[in-house]
Amino acid sequence: MTGSGRLLVVTAVAAERDAVLAGLARGRSAGAQAAVDVVAGGVGPAAAAAATATALARAQAAGTPYALVVSAGIAGGFAPAAPVGSLAVADAIVAADLGAETSAGFTPVAELGFGTSEHRPPAALSRRLADVLGASYGPVLTVSTVTGTAERAGTLMRRHPAAVAEAMEGFGVAEAAAAAGLPVLEIRAVSNAVGPRDRAAWRIGDALAALTAAFGKLPAALEVDPEHD
Ligand SMILES: O=C(O)c1cccc(C(=O)CC[C@H]2O[C@@H](n3cnc4c(=O)[nH]cnc43)[C@H](O)[C@@H]2O)c1
Question: Transmembrane segments in this chain: where (predicted)?
Answer without folding.
Answer: none
